[in-house]
Amino acid sequence: MLALVVMLTQGFLKIEAEQPSARHVAIFVSPLVASFAALPLWIAAEQVMKILGNRWRLLVIPPLAATLALVAFLNYQFYFDDWNEYHRKLVPNHNEVAAAIHDFEKSDGSLDNAYIKTWPYWLDAGAMQVELGELDWPNFLDDIEGAAAHVNDAQAQLYLLNINDHESVARLQQLYPRGELVRVSSSIQPTFDFLVFQVPGS
Fold this sequence. Notes:
alpha/beta
């Protein structure tokens, strides 16, 4: 019964105000299906216990324990090693982008004067805000023309761009001839490299 409750937990957590999807409904069926699938195993186990008598514990428990230990080890390796490495290669490097902004803060800049030019399927705004420690940080530019509003600002400016955003780089170089463009190499993989365009204060 405890196992059934645990299996139903994610179904309860997925309940929303709108009409639930077919996948959410299917989650509630999984405990019932698992119970039916386990019945033959239970019947077989009862027969084995009747045949072996009290000796079944010595004959069944050691290989069963070894099997469970092996499964636990393989699951641990799959999730914390294999999947972790696979996941890191798929998810953008928010922490490295945030580190570049924090380095700017520690030099002559501030978080208010750092901006991220958005790019399709690049960085998640919510994840970046979490990494920066500012859950309401608003400095995302959908259009690079938004940088034109900061031209007369005497403070240092920082712009972070996707490595493929050549148009925005060209526009920033027009707006800020004194700006310095640097390519930051990702420790995860080269496809996560990004560009930092820093404008010194005056």
